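TICKET: design request
STATUS: open
ATTACHED STRUCTURE:
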């Protein structure tokens, strides 16, 4: 009889998961996906009230979840909390910031604010979680929420693009560095996703027309579009995947 291969498990039973930016939007969606398959999920964000609501909803489903008030832009706070509550088998860093303007109108304050969260915060959160895994002698999967704008340019998005291109760079470098220890590091690169925080973007009809014209599937994204990619990268189903990006962009970057 033929010996059939065994489908890799998507279960996260016994895994401790940290999701940053988990109080709403893509972060909350990713936390939901990973809790649903058995992960012990720590939801981290700045908004304590929203975290409490999310944890209550998770526990009502019978999932394991707890809240951690955390500002990814505060590196000292990140280092302290990751060391205290880790090691984490899985990281999803969905904390991010966008301040869009023509490049000639970018202020140093906006530049620094975006870079502090999107690059500096992401870098030290990723490296700190990796450090905890190395110390514990454990493998792991670390996921940074990047953007399709890490692969293309966009009008009024020079600073944002710069921050996300940089995330792709350190992801590849860390994947090489930590790969021998079984620690995988990847990014997810969404297109424009409708969330409560991005709805203002979609109030501009000219922008919506431009966006929908670039997305080959003809629609903008919803948070559910990202959940499968997060689950895949977090689980053993992606055990040979590291140092790369999953583009969830409806074909934006295909041409």
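STATUS: resolved
RESOLUTION: sequence designed for all positions
ATTACHED SEQUENCE:
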């Amino acid at each position: 009889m033929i010996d059939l291969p065994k489908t890799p498990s998507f279960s996260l039973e016994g895994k401790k998961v940290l999701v940053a930016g988990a109080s709403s939007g893509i972060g909350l969606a990713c936390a939901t996906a990973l809790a649903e398959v058995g992960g012990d999920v720590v939801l981290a964000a700045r908004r304590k009230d929203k975290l409490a609501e999310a944890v209550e909803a998770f526990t009502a489903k019978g999932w394991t979840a707890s809240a951690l008030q955390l500002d990814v832009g505060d590196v000292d706070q990140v280092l302290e909390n990751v060391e205290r509550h880790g090691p984490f088998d899985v990281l999803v860093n969905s904390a991010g910031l966008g301040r869009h303007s023509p490049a000639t109108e970018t202020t140093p304050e906006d530049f620094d604010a975006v870079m502090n969260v999107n690059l500096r915060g992401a870098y030290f959160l990723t490296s700190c979680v990796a450090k905890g895994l190395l110390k514990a002698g454990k493998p792991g999967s670390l996921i940074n929420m990047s953007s399709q704008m890490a692969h293309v340019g966009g009008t009024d998005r020079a600073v944002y693009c710069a921050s996300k291109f940089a995330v792709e760079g350190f992801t590849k470098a860390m994947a090489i560095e930590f790969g021998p220890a079984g620690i995988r590091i990847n990014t997810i690169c969404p297109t424009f996703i409708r969330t409560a925080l991005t709805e203002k973007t979609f109030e501009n009809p000219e922008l919506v027309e431009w966006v929908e014209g670039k997305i080959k599937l003809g629609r903008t994204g919803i948070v559910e579009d990202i959940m499968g990619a997060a689950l895949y990268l977090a689980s053993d189903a992606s055990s040979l995947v590291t140092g790369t990006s999953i583009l969830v962009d409806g074909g934006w970057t295909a041409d």
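CLOSING REMARK: Helices lie at 25-36, 48-60, 75-85, 108-136, 158-178, 205-214, 224-234. The chain has seven helices and nine strands.
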